[in-house]
Amino acid sequence: MNRIHQLVLPGLALVLLAAGCRGIPTDSEKSARRDLTSVSNLLAAPILVLPTNATLRDVVTFALRNDPKVTAAYADWAAAVENITVARSLPDPKLTFQAYIESALTSLMPGLAADIPGPGKLRARAEAASAESRTKYFQFESAVQQTAFAVEKSFYPLHFLDAKLVVNRQSLALLAQLESLARTQNEVGRATLQDVLRAQIEQEKLRTETANLEDSRRVLLTQFKAALGLHADQPDPPVPADAEFSESNLSDDELFAAALKQNPQLKEMEAEIKSAEASLQLARKDKVPDFSAGLQAEVYRPPFYWPQASMTLPIWRDKLAAELAAAQAGKRAAEARLSAEQISLAVDFAEQTYLIREADRVLTLLRERLLPRARQSLEVSRAAYRSGQVDFLNVIDAERSLLNFQLDEIAAQIQREIAHAELTLLVAGVPPENAPLLKTETSAR
After folding, report:
1. Which residues contact 139 (CB under 8 A, 6 or more apart)?
2. pLDDT per residue over 395-412, tens digit each?
3. In this structure, how many other beta carbons lie within 10 angstroms of the beta carbon of residue 247?
4. Which of 18, 267, 269, 406 has the fewest CB atoms within 10 Å, measured from its CB?
5. Domain count, the chain
6. How confident is the model over 300-325, as pLDDT tens digits?
7. CATH number of the domain where residue 343 is located
8. How far are the Cα atoms of 27, 35, 132, 307, 326 from residue 38, in angstroms, in the given order?
9. Under DSSP, is residue 107 helix (H, G, I), strand (E, B) or coil?
10. What torsion do the CA atoms of 279, 281, 283, 285 make, to the nearest 10 degrees?
11. How far is CA 296 from the centre of its chain?
12. Which domain holds residue 293?
């Protein structure tokens, strides 16, 4: 029994020592962990409490730290980085026991065995896992961009709703003045009571529209709140007072070239191609055999050892051919998806730049020509009505035209700002300020 203790206990100690061993990280693993640490430090900053005078940048930064979709995408990326270590690590060694028993225990052989993947397999697995982690990072980057866009997309209608309410209230005040004017004209016999009733009808219609707008604000505020990653039972966030409109100094050609370089979906597709190439290299390694080696010690007859060794025989050629063909097909599919995404990007770019140009033309028309003329037309109609030259319908039509042009201006502003946000964030891939992302030169690796 003393011999058993002398041999078995050192063997167990060896196993425990092996359990504390560490593998050798690959260069791609080191790089991935540096990137993960860099982003983790950015995300670790405390989430700011939004003040009542929060700006649009403040709420976007808040959303990027608070949105569960961003958190989930980051966790997926972190898990993929950890999987690199798993992929490049050797299989766990095995503690073995073998005994021969007839009428009594005649032989006891504890031992250790280890599986050894074929040459190059661990590195190929590590490269495949590293490529997958890069794909997950660009998915995280895309989630960040989409969250920022969701905030702006929900903010602009809410912001301009208040502008619509201001216009409607100004129009109500104007209609009240027109009603007073109609009463005065009626009292001196220059108009009938029908003009007063028309002014009252227009006011009632506009009051109902205003009430509907005020009611819809709750819906828009709920959408804005959800874009910030806030739950229904949490307090409503402050709505920025200013829209902070931004312009790009780049031409369309320069912006499109930038989009082809840094669009997060394109970078994700490119990373998928690299992942498919790594999988292809791994599939080629499957024809290399794996090995197993072990050593057993006879307790009752020391120092007597039983070495063991084995090797897999990759003889199933159809399986190897199928694995290789599947990897090649995966690479072709990734290349095709990249090509399709590039085509889609060109279409999205053309659509958003058209919407911006269209909105700019409409705003120029409204602000420089139609709105000034509509205001002038209303003043002329009011003066002509006082002198009895036109009837009240002309005044009402002039007031309606002014109101519609003012609402058209707000609609064009909404279209322009949402299109601009989608163009810069989703199409061109320009990250928002203070985004928890890697620098362009780092993330492009």
Report:
1. 73, 76, 77, 268
2. 999 999 999 999 999 999
3. 6
4. 18
5. 1
6. 776 677 788 889 899 899 988 998 99
7. 1.20.1600.10
8. 17, 5, 19, 48, 35
9. strand
10. -140
11. 55
12. 2-443
